[in-house]
Design goal:
The chain is an alpha/beta fold and 585 residues long. It has 18 helices and 16 strands. A 5-stranded parallel β-sheet has the order 3-2-1-13-14, with helices on both faces. A 4-stranded antiparallel β-sheet has the order 5-4-9-10, with no helix packed on it. Strands 7-6-8 form a 3-stranded antiparallel β-sheet, with no helix packed on it. The two termini are 49 Å apart.
Length: 585
């Protein structure tokens, strides 16, 4: 029997990693990928090494309800689920099999576990739910009620002319369609009318001070998220409609709301909980999910784009507070700015950008993983360019990391037949001591940045370490030490070098797991997934260990890559579009 009171007194470290649920009406593009799922995967892989695989859970899923899919189904005269079944499986295949995203559970909002949990959870909020008539935008041309995001117009606060009915992407303020100036249906472009309809509202105003206090007191929430959220709270939170008049969604559980569905944002946020429940249901451990939501020893990380901040920093914690249960509130909500493509916003209709089923045809997926984390827009909008992509692959991956690994291991083979030489701690010079100190320090420096949601910043430190290692190797010049017969100094240099390669492999693993494993294979060190993060700080490859076969780790992109890439993309795009499920074409 599960004892929640006992669990609340235990200090068991559990790490919950989540990423925003991608909406299945289109294939995610590279900006979507880095904003949530790829970032979460990098962190989850780090966390498993740091805290143990058995203590980390990484979940997400397909968000598949709402108007866009309902409209498409009406056009095609099919059930919406037929479309989302195909789209979900396609996206799931891309994430798990192509991009090697290490989800413990990638589920969907059509999951029976999710639908059941959402309805039961919302009934716990009835104390804070009120019924009121609301004016809902209705498109007379398309003959349907429009959800907030399907109404566009001018923001009443900043004048931005392309604001959505739920939020302005320019100033970040939460909106309702009735607040927009010159509102238009985003499907047909015609002005909607506003019809009165009874709806159920979650009274966020009841949690204004609680949310303010929670955000203000957090020492772990990133500053950009805190400042934006506190700005909304200072204006006063208002009731937010939980229900919609759409048919395609989870039926509202409230008495009298039988013809309503749940607003997709309310139910998708609860997917973070239902995905954990479903994971343990499948394992036959139906109560264990509570270890990730009620224990004192929990750290939770949410990886999202900046447009999703209000829902994660205001609505989700308010719902958890309102439930009457001691749910663990988010610790770190890592929100990226926007990734631009050659100076422009990604656009499917204008074919601007690269989508995640196209990218693997252009370059090794793990090269993409590294490039995207190096371009992760952590402080401001960042521009993806092919020129910078080539520089990162050819300089940072090949020249800095790959060449160093190859040089150290090749010299170990050449001078010692691949056997690690004896180490003399009493014969170290200042350069040796400096690199040993860096080996001791760098895993904590990178790990601390990762745990703040600063993945790009973590890779900056990793590359700083690699460059220091290269400088050390050039300074020590083992080839000269060998010729001069300086055996003790040569031994120490290559002993420190081979251990620094192990450190690099572990630091690289969250970004490029297969290539990190290749380094471990060359080191003859077994499965890197069974390694511990903190071993990267130690000189643990000792005298007498024999390394494996050395091979080239990375390859440079050819000089003409940049000039030819756009033509190549255009060619593969036509073939890939034919392969996509109906909903995603």
């Amino acid at each position: 029997m599960f004892n929640k009171d006992l669990l609340l007194t235990q200090n068991i470290m559990k790490v919950l990693v989540t990423s925003a649920w991608p909406y299945v009406n289109s294939v995610p593009h590279l900006g979507n990928l880095i904003g949530s799922i790829l970032s979460a995967d990098v962190f989850a892989r780090y966390a498993r090494l740091k805290y143990g695989k058995e203590n980390v859970l990484f979940v997400s899923g397909s968000d598949e309800h709402g108007t866009p899919i309902e409209i498409e189904a009406i056009k095609r005269k099919v059930n919406p689920k037929e479309l989302t079944d195909q789209a979900h499986e396609y996206d799931k295949h891309l994430f798990l099999n192509v991009w090697k995203i290490s989800f413990d559970n990638y589920t969907r909002t059509e999951s029976e576990t999710h639908k059941k949990f959402v309805r039961e959870f919302l009934l716990k909020l009835t104390k804070y739910v009120k019924v009121s008539e609301d004016e809902i935008p209705f498109c007379e041309y398309d003959k349907l009620y429009l959800p907030d995001r399907f109404v566009k117009g001018t923001c009443p606060y900043c004048g931005f002319e392309d604001a959505r009915g739920d939020q302005c992407d320019n100033c970040g303020k939460l909106l309702t369609p009735s607040l927009l100036v010159n509102p238009k249906c985003s499907i047909c472009g015609k002005a909607p009318i506003f019809k009165k309809s009874k709806h159920w509202f979650f009274d966020l105003s009841e949690f204004n001070e609680k949310i303010r206090s929670w955000i203000s007191s957090s020492n772990e929430m990133p500053d950009n998220v805190k400042s934006v959220a506190l700005g909304w709270v200072s204006e006063g939170l208002k009731p937010r409609s939980i229900t919609r008049d759409n048919k395609w969604g989870i039926p509202a559980p409230f008495i009298g709301a039988e013809d309503k569905s749940i607003y997709v944002w309310f139910e998708a946020l609860l997917g973070y909980i239902s995905a954990v429940i479903e994971y343990f249901e499948k394992k036959g451990e139906v109560e264990k999910w509570k270890e990730y939501w009620f224990s004192n020893g929990i750290k939770s990380y949410y990886f999202i784009g900046k447009d999703n901040i209000p829902f994660h920093v205001v609505i989700l914690p308010a719902m958890l507070m309102a439930s009457g249960e001691e749910y663990h509130l988010p610790d770190v909500i890592a929100a990226t700015e926007y990734l631009l493509y050659e100076g422009q916003k990604f656009s499917k209709s204008r074919k601007i950008g690269v989508w995640i089923d196209e990218a693997p045809e252009l370059m090794d997926v793990e090269y993409w993983r590294f490039v995207l984390i190096r371009l992760r827009p952590e402080e401001k909008d960042t521009n993806f360019t092919w020129r910078e992509t080539v520089r990162i692959v050819n300089t940072e991956l090949n020249d800095d990391i790959g060449n160093y690994v190859n040089r150290i291991l090749s010299m170990l083979n050449r001078y010692y037949n691949g056997i690690v030489p004896e180490f003399r701690s009493d014969a170290l010079d200042d350069n040796d001591k400096k690199i040993i100190s860096l080996i001791n320090e760098i895993p904590k420096i990178v790990g601390d940045l990762f745990e703040k949601g600063k993945l790009k910043a973590g890779t900056e430190e990793m590359l700083r370490f690699v460059r220091e290692c290269n400088a050390y190797l050039n300074l020590k010049a083992p080839w000269d030490l060998y010729k001069a017969g300086k055996e003790v100094e040569l031994n120490n240099t290559l002993y420190i070098g081979v251990n620094s390669v192990k450190t690099i492999a572990i630091l690289l693993y969250p970004l490029m797991p297969s290539h990190a494993q290749e380094i471990y294979d060359m080191l003859n060190m077994g499965n890197i997934e069974n390694e511990k993060w903190d071993i990267a700080s130690k000189l643990s490859i000792n005298y007498g260990h024999k390394i494996g076969k050395v091979k080239v780790l990375f390859k440079k992109l050819e000089p003409e890559f940049e000039s030819k890439i756009k033509d190549k993309l255009e060619k593969i795009r036509k073939d890939i579009e034919k392969m996509r499920p109906t909903l995603l074409k």
